Structures are given as C-alpha cells and as structure tokens.
Fold this protein.
Amino acid sequence: MCQLLGMNCNVPTDICFSFEGFCERGGTTDEHKDGWGIAFFEDNGCRSFLDPNPSVESSVSTLIRNYPIKSRNVISHIRKATYGEVKLENTHPFTRELWGRYWVFAHNGDLHDFQPDFSGAYEPVGGTDSERAFCLILERLKRDFRKMPPSELLGASLQQIAEDIAKFGIFNFMLSNGECLFVFCTTKLSYIVRQHPFSTASLKDKDVTIDFREHAAPGDRVAVIATEPLTVDETWIDVPQKKLLIFQDGELMV
Amino acid sequence: MCQLLGMNCNVPTDICFSFEGFCERGGTTDEHKDGWGIAFFEDNGCRSFLDPNPSVESSVSTLIRNYPIKSRNVISHIRKATYGEVKLENTHPFTRELWGRYWVFAHNGDLHDFQPDFSGAYEPVGGTDSERAFCLILERLKRDFRKMPPSELLGASLQQIAEDIAKFGIFNFMLSNGECLFVFCTTKLSYIVRQHPFSTASLKDKDVTIDFREHAAPGDRVAVIATEPLTVDETWIDVPQKKLLIFQDGELMV
C-alpha cells in the first residue's frame, strides 16, 4: 500500500512542514520506496515533481523540502508498487486536462480485475490500476457534463463513480481540479483542519516541531489529509468510509 | 520571442551540458525572463519541471543542472511573454495524453487572431496562443487517427496541421511523444547531430567546454535542436522553413 498526503487551503500555503514528515515514510519510517510525487496547483496552473526513486534519497524531494511553493491545493503520494512496475509512467500523482482545467489524482489501494473499456477520451499511459481508475473517473465526468458543473453536482457524480470503482477493491484516493480537493476512503485516511487559534505541532516521523502562530495569519485555514496522522499532538479525524468528502478553502463542505 | 531546446537520442542521455548554456538565456545572455520549463521522457513516462521564475534565478534549474536525468527525448523552453500573463499555467512545455501516450509541446513565436473552436477533446487551461496551437494539433490528430499511426502518416498529418496554423504567424515548435521529436520552423531553429567520432564543444553562453569522448560510447547518437546554436565550435544546420522534421533515435528521418 501507498501513502497519501493532500492539502487544501483558503490562501496559498507551503507544505514544507507536512512534507518533511511525510517523505520520511518513503524509506525511513515506512517501506514505501517505489517512487513518489507531488503536484501543486498555482491558480489554474499545475506542476508536478515526480521521481521513481525513494523519497528519502531523492534530489527532487530535497528541492521540495527547501523550496516553499505556495499552493491552495497539493497532492502527494509515496508508492509501494502492487500493480505496475517501478517506473516513471507508474508514479503518482497523475495529471490530465478536463473542461480546460488540470485534474490531479493519487490512489492508495489495490483494484482487482479492474480492466475497464475506455472510449478514447482518456487512456492510461502506464500499467497501474490507479491510472485506469483516474481515466475512468474523467471519462465518466466528461460523458455526464459538457462543462464544469456546480460542486454539489460534481460531488454527487464523483460519489457514484467512486462507489462503482470501489467494488473492485481498496480505493482511497485524492483528486483535485485546483479549486476543491475530493477525498474518498474505503480503508484509511485522516484529516485535520488548522485555523485560528493556531498552536504548535510536532511531526510523528521526524523530530521537528512548528509554531503555526509564527507562520499563519488569523484568517488562514488549512486542511491536511493523510493516510496516517502526520503529527502526534493534534487531533486528526478519520475520513468516513465510502463517503466522498469535498474540501474547499480549507474547510470540509457539507 | 522565446528560446527552444530539444534533444532526441538513441540511448538515454543527460542534457546537462546543453541546458547549462541554454538556461543562461533566461536572464543573463538573453532577456527571456518570463518563466521556463523542461520535460523529460523516460520510457513512456514523462516528467516536467516548470517554473514561472527566470531560469537563471531558479532553484528548479539548479536542480536540473546538477541532477543528470537520462532521457531519449527532452524539450525545454524559456519564455518571453507575448500572449498570456507570466504565470504557471502559461509556462511551456505543455503536456497532454493522446492514444495512451504523453505528448509534450513548446512554441516560439506569435500567432495573431488565433482563436480556434475546440470540440472538447482538448481545451487550453491558460491564455497562450501556444497552448491553443497544441490543443488544436492533438484534436486534429485524434480526429484523423484512432490509434498511433506509422511515423510517415503521422508526419504527413502534422505537416498539414502545422502549415495551417503557421498562416496565423510565427510558428516554431517542438513536439514529442517520447519516441520521435517533431520540429517545425517558420523563422529560426538550428540542429546538430553528434555521433562517432566525438570531439569537444564549447558553449556559446557560458565558459564551459566538454569532451564528448569522455561521456559517449561509440554507438551513441544525439540530435540537439535549438533556437540559436548552443556551441561556438560545431557546425549547426538551419532547420528548413515550413518543412516538418522528424528526429528518431538521434537522427533525422527522411
């Protein structure tokens, strides 16, 4: 299984603190050494940094730890290969364009005998069950809507597609279009919303403590979602099973 | 106008030497300071490093100069904004998927009154004439072929599409699907094919000399294409105008 990390905020925020702990899971505090990646939205633009090498040994992860890219939506993934070889084309997060926006997707879990027929709108490049799931999600959204629908309609459609795919196995995923972060869980994901009054937090995977009062303004709000809680002294909430969550502007939408 | 750099090889090769000189054009030896990017294919996978900051000041370009990613197809671009703001979504190269492969595109030039109607297969995310051209190229290829056709058919189709778009203005571009590098020129592009017997070369934009005999094996073959020659002591060939060139395995296909 893999490790997922997502962030959704109301103002562009860097993910350096969370990423510092998270990338230890790519070879130090956990065994997920089959590559890693991170995608940052900046307005409608999106840039990914992908590396088929373990995150703890990666020059690219050193860059990300030290280069504070400010973003309102981030998705990161550390891979433990199940389906698909360890190579770049199988490294999450995956990116495609739909309705003139980039969409980014990362998955934790295994989908068994999951070989959908694709219409040709989106086709997987690599050999993972995950990229097949992503292509199917986008194909169905494109079939159902000609343009970006309101969030509620989009959420209802995604809920149905996610349930359909989850019949094939473990399907924890994060998906973003740069505006919302969509989170779906069949086994394990937790989240926390940090907002005023801010406090301190200590990483679980590394001896690092941060005082958010020195970094955040009173109106800032940041949701962080991860496979396992990243800090030891905050209360993380379990993502409910098989219920799509939508984070927007750093808060959980009903 | 922008600066383009492309590389196509028969074995995975790092682009560090060429990139070292090229990225000086993003603020030192030339005025193209409106962001830059580079995309590397590794098998069918593709990773891009995009930065809306000038390449000479960029942490990301420091990484690329020092981190030898070996690739058979590379496209890089330094931007001088004409159409579209200086922001990530307008930073080349652009990437999309077609027929289960990634395609990467970068453009130098200006297309005037170029506002094609898109069918919905591909839509631009940013505001550049360049991304519109890329989306139109892919839309027409997808309309004409259900699967990847043989190179000659693909080349003939691309030649026609490129000529159609070039009616709107200056259209120098590089396009790759990870196998071939397609090059089209209406004003200025040069190339060189390096192969046995290898020799030395000195950069034009920086005081650096390399002895390829220390880096290349006898069977290696590398084509490098750039807006302006990158070295002072090699013979670069002008790309002919309005004739699509296809580079594969480091050589120019007839």
In short: Chain B touches chain A at residues 42-52, 59-60, 63, 66-67, 87-91, 95-97, 99-102, 120-126, 142, 146 (CB under 8 Å). Chain B has a mean pLDDT of 93. The CA atoms of residues 116 and 136 of chain B lie 7 Å apart.
